[in-house]
Specification:
seven-stranded mixed sheet, 7 strands, globular
Length: 204
């Protein structure tokens, strides 16, 4: 549950971009949903900003660890389930976050499901992994390697205990799907082998 460097907070390539999720918080902060919450590292931060927070994950072991992390937070609920089939209300959440999740799902239906859960005026934040396919993709990957090595030495590295799969979708695939499903979404490359997609659902 802790970082490999004694006395330092947990850190890995996913945790590094939790600040991006928190920075996207809309003005109204009643309900937040963290899809693929894993070990629950993001949940305490969401709980400090939102009235009610749900952490959703399919992995029982990861949820057990998350339960230890958020056990004293009365406004956090953990649910074991798959976002594509879990009984979650349409357009309920002010914030839906999905860190290292979308590449586990069918791209278009998965993105559409995440978007469907966001209330009008609410925000969807995806921090994802994409398959390198272009020279620019490989250049960003090469640039990230030395930065990652230095940060791991300084910050330590917290293992991800939930199942891991390699992405099959390229950033071009994701941009195309987003243009169709979440028009106006902002998609950015990030140095530590991640991209972000931030979308505000327009008023109905």
């Amino acid at each position: 549950m802790s970082s490999d460097v004694a006395g330092r907070p947990p850190w890995n390539h996913n945790i590094a971009y939790h600040r991006l999720v928190l920075a996207a918080a809309p003005a109204r902060r009643h309900r937040a949903l963290d899809v693929g919450c894993g070990q629950g590292h993001l949940l305490p931060h969401l709980a400090a900003a939102y009235d009610d927070v749900i952490g959703l994950d399919t992995d029982e072991a990861a949820l057990t660890e998350a339960a230890h992390r958020v056990g004293e937070l009365p406004n956090v609920t953990l649910i074991r389930g798959d976002v594509t089939s879990a009984e979650l209300p349409h357009a309920l959440f002010d914030l839906v976050s999905a860190v290292a999740v979308l590449h586990h799902l069918p791209l278009r239906s998965g993105l559409a499901r995440l978007a469907d859960l966001v209330r009008p005026g609410g925000c969807l934040v995806v921090v994802g992994l994409a398959r390198s396919a272009s020279p620019l993709d490989y250049a960003w990957g090469a640039a990230g390697l030395p930065v990652s090595k230095v940060l791991r030495l300084v910050r330590g590295h917290t293992p991800v205990t939930a199942p891991i799969v390699d992405p099959t979708q390229t950033l071009a695939d994701i941009r195309q799907a987003a243009a169709e499903i979440t028009p106006g979404a902002r998609i950015r490359r990030h140095l530590l082998f991640r991209y972000s997609l931030t979308w505000t659902r327009p008023p109905d």
